[in-house]
Amino acid sequence: MNEASRGRKSSAFSWWLRTGRLPLAVSPDGLELKFNPWHDPADGRFTFAGAGRHYGASEADAAGGASSRTSDRAGAAPALGDRSKSQTGTRSKRKTSRAGPPASGAHRPVRPVPPPVQPKSTEEGQLGKQPNPVTEFVGGVGEGLYDVGKVTVAGLHAARTTNPATTVRSAGRGIAGMIDAAIAAEDTPARIQVSRAASAVANASARDIGRATGTVAGNVALAVAPGATLSKVAALRRLRMARPRTTYEPPQIGWVRETTRSKKSWKTYNDAAPGARAGQAPTLMRTMADGSKRPVKFDGIQGDYVIDRKWKVVDAPHARAQLLRQSQVLAEHRLIGTWEVPTLVEKNKALKLFKKMSVTNIHVKVVKP
What we know:
Elements: H1 2-19, E1 38-39, E2 53-54, H2 59-99, H3 122-129, H4 133-161, H5 164-187, H6 190-202, H7 206-241, E3 254-257, H8 265-271, E4 280-287, E5 293-297, E6 300-302, E7 305-309, H9 317-332, E8 336-341, H10 344-357, E9 362-366
Parallel strand pairs: 7-8, 8-9
Antiparallel strand pairs: 1-2, 3-4, 4-5, 6-7
Helix pairs in contact: 4-7
């Protein structure tokens, strides 16, 4: 027996070392044992704090019990005296009646009997003292938020002022306590856990529900607030660093008369470019080094893209000069050009020429005739 008690004490001591708190008192079936001093005077059932009568062994209750017992004893003594007096009076009355009838003029005074006082029922008293559920719920929400804020502030203060080793040790103890609680919950049958939860929800007051709601809302706010705050700060920083986007006027596309006349295939292919006009060619004005302006011709236009068709791509001086003129005027007007070629072979030639001349604002694609 002594060894069993020693084993329980050592296990309780090890629990305290690992978790920092004493183990809970449980019954043989795994239920947690607690003492509830509040009872309903009418039927003796357990009630919530403040809803019934407190039968605890506190000093106030002990004093109240002693005073009640003293008053009972004090009240009991006169009762015994009254009983003796009543018996003596009865005997004297009997002797008087035996001695003879009372005088004709004397009569016994009749005392009015007061009506019996009916005590107020317990249910009516409880209904009169019952607080407003809405007020209790709001107060519980406030308590829950206050508890979450208090724990958060205490944790931040401890993290800033406590030795890191102590903080890590405390965190380890907290994790150990959570693991022990999870293991204990796994050992408890599911039906008992469900019954506990159902009982807690059924017997919860408005203040308890409000406190739980406030705690959940506070924890959710703590989880969401840092990310939202960082996003707002980042947005404000981007807004401060952002610069107004420069707007440019749309390019002025000119049209000149096409002087080249031919019935060959390359002429027909060039005239079929998107946005082309018969007998005309679209142009962009290029600013020269001396400030003068000269037009640069293309074959078509599609939206913001100017198009130039090439039936055959050649690496010749005049072809390289035309490519540089088109690249410069496109850069001046902030546009992108497109070369359209009939075959994949011509596309590869155009890409090699672009790479050789370091042209990056002109694309090339295959468009079959």
